[in-house]
Specification:
By secondary structure, the protein is mainly beta. 10% of the residues lie in helices and 44% in strands.
């Protein structure tokens, strides 16, 4: 998952946009479950989120109404 995030006017919140989703061929989670329960936001739409660093390779993204998402990052993305 590739995303952009910019600081919003809300305290400690970002305006986040998913720019691209790549599903690994080894991922066997049915797409319907992913879209319904894990990631209901579609690419391109903006949403408010909190972003917390987990370690060098992962961040947690929590939108106001959805569960946490973990993103592995290659470089500093935000």
């Amino acid at each position: 998952m590739f995303f952009t995030a910019k600081i919003s006017e809300l305290n400690n919140m970002y305006i986040t946009r998913i720019t691209q989703e790549d599903i690994d061929k080894r991922d066997n989670l049915p797409k319907e479950l992913w879209l319904q329960y894990m990631f209901p936001k579609s690419s391109g739409g903006e949403f408010y989120s909190e972003i917390k660093e987990m370690n060098k390779n992962a961040v947690l993204i929590q939108s106001l109404s959805n569960p946490f998402y973990i993103c592995v990052r290659a470089e500093d993305q935000y």
